[in-house]
Amino acid sequence: MWGQERGGHNELSGTVHGPAVQAQTVYGGIHVQSPPPRPHPPWQLPPTGRITDRAAELRLLESRRVRAGRAGDRTLVAVSGLGGVGKTALALAWLHTLREPCPDGQLYADLGAQSAAGPADPAEVTGRFLRALGVPGAQVPRTFAERSALYRSLTAGRRLVVLLDDAASAAQVRPLLPGGPGVTAVTSRWRLPGLSVDGCHWLHLEPLGVDDAVELLAETLADDRVRAQPEQARALVELCAGLPLAVRVAGARLAARPRRGITTMVRALAEEHDRLEELAIDGDHNVRAALDLTYQELPPDAARLYRLLGLHPGSEFGDGVAVALLAEPSSPESGTRARARALLDLLHRASLLTDADEDRHRFHDLVRLHAAHKAERDEPEPERAAALRRVADHYLATATRAEEVVDPQHRTMARDYGEGPVVTEDFGAGTEAALDWQERELANAMAVIRRARSAFPTVSWQLADALWPLFLRRKFYEQWRAAHEEGLAAAEELGDTAAQCRMLTSGGVGELGTGHPERALAMFERAARQFRADGNALGHARTLNYRGLAHQRLGRPDEATRYFTRAARELPRCGDVRAGGLARLNLADVALGQGRALEAADHAAAAHAVLGASGDTYNAARAAIVLGRAHLARGEADPAEERLTAALDDLRAMSAAYETARALHALAELAEVRGDAALARARYGEALELYGAAGRTDSADAGRARADLDRLPAPAEE
Which of 257, 241, 240 is nearest to 249 (CA)? Predict the structure, then answer.
C-alpha cells in the first residue's frame, strides 16, 4: 500500500491547523491508498513529423547506439545547433524508432534553457521521472541526492529512452542520466563538453543545404509552386539560412495563400530581413524575419491571441490559458472556448505552435520571444496587464478548485481575483486528477508566483497557498519552500498579517518535512507572535501543536509535552475540539516513548474518544494503537489485543499502509509475549512489507521491526 498524506491544515480566519505528529509520524489526517498495479512503461516522447535529409545524421546516431550496445554500455548523445535548426525533430525521429530495442519506456523533459521561467530544476525533473516510473508521490524522496540514487536504482536494469530537451548545462543533465543500458539524447543550443566524462557522443547539427531546404519547402507547400519557380524557391530558403523552422514558417504562409507566387515572399522576406537585423540573436534573425511576416498575415484576432500568449510565463500551456486571454465579460465562456480552439488551430497551421501533449501547446523558444516582442510593441500596457492578470487568475482559480477537491478542510482563505472573467480549467474528477493538474502546471504556477509578487502580490501568496495539497502529498519540497518564501514576501509587502501567518505555518510544515525543525520552529514562533498581536486566540492556540512538533523533532520531549499540554487545554476553549484531541494523541505518544504507560493510556483513551466523536476514524484508529501499546507495556495482553485488532481492522479498510504496519508491529510484539513465535514472525514480516510499501523503510519503526524479526529464532525445518 502506498502512503499518501491527507490534509494537514484545517483553517479558520486565516489560521492554520496543521498535522499533529507522533515520533516520526504525522497526526493530522493521513490517507493512504492501496498500491496501484505495476504501471505500464511510460511513453512520454512528443510526436514528430517527417524530417528532410537528415539520413546521414540518423545513421550516425544509430551506429553509435549499436556499438554501445555491443559493448554493453549505455548510449549518450548530445545534439547541438542553432535555434530552429531541427535538433529536437532529429532526436525524436531517431528515438521513436527504438521502441523494440528499448521496450521499458520513454521519458521526456523540457529542461527549459530558453524558458522565461528559467532552466528546469533537476530535482523536480527527477521527481517527475520517478513518478512516471511508478513511484507514488508520497514515496518520492525529499532530498535531491536521495531522488537521484533512487532514479539510478530504478533504471539500472531497464532499457529506457530518455530525451532531455533544451539543456542549459552538463550539470543540469548529469543527475538525469539513467543507470541502465538504454539510450539518452540531449539537445542544446550549446555544446556541453562537461558530458564528455560521461561518455557522451557529439553531433552538431548544421542548417539544411539548399537542395534539402527546397525539398522541405516543397513538402510544406504540397503543390506545384516549387517545381514551377525553382530559382525563387532557392532564393527563399537561402533567406531562411536553411533553418527548418524558418523554412516551415515561410512555407506555412505560402500554403495559406495558394495563389501567391514565391517571388512575392522572397521580396517581402528580404525587406523584413534587413529591417529586423536589430532583433537578431545568435544568427536567428532569419527566423525572426519569417515570423514577422507570418504575424502580419494572421487575422487580427489570431494575431492578438499570438502576442498575448507571449505574455505567458512558460513555453507550454493548455487550452484554458488561451480562453483566459480572450475572455470578455460580455461573452459566454462556451463561445470563447470554441473561438480559442479555432485560433489555436490556426496558429498550429501557421507553424507558430506545436503539440506538447493532448490539448496542450508549445512555443519554440524563438517563437515565444517573438510573440512577447509583438505584445510589447502592439498591445497597450493596460491590456497587457489585464491579460496577464487573467492568466494568473486562471492558475489561481484552477489550483483552488483542485485544493477544494483534495483537501476541503484547508480551503478557508479568501481568493482575490481581478476584474475577470476568471476561467477555470476542467481537470477531470477525483483527487488524483486534481493533484495531477497541479503537478503538470507546477512550473507555470511557480513562474506566476514569482511574477505576481510585484504585479499583483495577492495572487503570489494565494497561489502558493492553493498548492498546499500538492506540496504535502507529492513532496515538491524545493518548490514548497520557494513558493512560501515568495508568498511571505508578498504578504509582507501587503501588510496582510493573516496571510503572513499562513505562509509561515504552511512553510514551516515543509521545513519539518525536509528535516529542518530549527527553521520550522522559528517560523512557528513568528506566527505565534503575530497571532497574539492580532488578538487571534485560535490561531495562536494552533501554533502550540506546531511548536510542540518542532521541539519533538529536535529531541526535546519535555518542551514538546509542555506545548502539547497547552494545546490540549486551549484549543477546545477556542472552538477546535478535534485539534485538542490530536494534541492529546501527541501527549500519549511522548509519554509512551518515555516509559509512562499509564499516562499514555489516559491521553490515548481521551484522544480516541474525541477523535471518534469528531468523525476522524483514521486518527481515532491511531489513538487506539497507542492505547494498545500502553496496555501492552503494562502487561495487559487482552485489552491490548482488543484495541490493536480494532485499529488494524479500521486501518486495513482505509488502506492505511504505515499505520497498518504499526498495528501489526504491536500485535507481533503481543504474539511474542504470548510465546507464539510463528505468529510474531508473520506479523513482523507483513509489517516490514507495509513499511516498505509506504516508503518508510528507513524509519525508526521499520528499523525496530527488522531488529525484532532478526532476533526471533529461525523456524524449525520440516
Answer: 240
CA-to-CA distance for 156 and 179, rounded, in angstroms? 4
pLDDT in tens, 673-709: 999 999 999 999 999 988 876 656 777 788 899 998 9
Three cell numbers at 40? 505500464
Strand duo 161-165 + 106-110: pairing:
parallel
| H or E segment and range at residue 701 | helix 700-711
Whole-angstrom Cα distance, residue 701 to residue 709?
Answer: 12
Phi-psi region of 420 (alpha: psi -120 to 50; beta: other; left: phi over 0): left
Strand 75-80 versus strand 183-188 pairing type: parallel
The Cα–Cα gap between 131 and 603 comes to 39
C-beta of residue 681 within 8 angstroms of C-beta of residue 688: no
Question: Quick check: 323 and 337 in contact, CB under 8 A?
Answer: yes
E strand or H helix at 354: strand 354-357
**Global model pTM greater than 0.70:** no
CB 18 within 8 A of CB 546: yes
Burial environment of residue 179 by CB neighbours within 10 A (0 to 12, 13 to 18, 19 or more): middle
- Rounded Cα gap, residues 489 and 495, in angstroms: 10
Q: Of 166, 134, 123, 163, which Cα lies nearest the Cα of 42?
A: 134
Q: Minimal CA–CA distance to 105: which of 39, 180, 43?
A: 43
Kindly state the DSSP code that residue 41 receives in the 8-state scheme: P
Q: In degrees, to the nearest 5, what angle opens at C-alpha 181 toward C-alphas 175 and 186?
A: 45
DSSP 8-state symbol, 162 = E
Percent share of the chain, pLDDT over 70: 90
Distances in whole angstroms, Cα of residue 175 to Cα of each of 127, 182, 185, 480: 11, 15, 14, 21
Rounded CA-CA distance 190/187 in Å is: 8
For residue 172 the three cell numbers come to 543540469
Name the residue among 630, 645, 661, 611 with its Cα closest to residue 28. 611
Cell of 697: 523503510
* Of 166, 452, 424, 462, nearest in space to 311 by CA: 452
The helix/strand/coil state of 485 is helix
Q: Please answer whether residues 284 and 366 qualify as being in contact, where contact means their C-beta atoms are separated by less than 8 angstroms.
A: yes
Residue 593: which residues within 8 A CB-CB, separation 6 or more?
23, 557
Rounded CA separation 28/637 (Å): 29
Q: Which residue has the cell 480566519?
A: 13
Q: Which residues does residue 362 pair with via DSSP β-bridges, in sequence order?
A: 316, 354
Cα–Cα distance list, 248 to 86, 243, 330, 352, 370 (Å):
11, 9, 38, 10, 16
- pLDDT digits 0-9 by tens, 611-670: 999 888 888 999 999 999 999 999 999 999 999 999 999 888 766 677 888 999 999 999
Tracing cell 498591445 back to the chain, one arrives at 379
Least confident of 173-187, 282-296, 354-368, 491-505: 282-296
Upper half-sphere CA count for residue 609 (Cβ side, 13 Å)? 5
378-399 burial code (b ≥16 CB/10 A, e <16): ebeeeebebbbbbbbbbbbbbb
Kindly write down the DSSP assignment for every residue of 71-129, as one continuous string.
TT--EEEEEE--TTS-HHHHHHHHHTT-TTTSTT-EEEEE--TT-TT-SPPHHHHHHHH
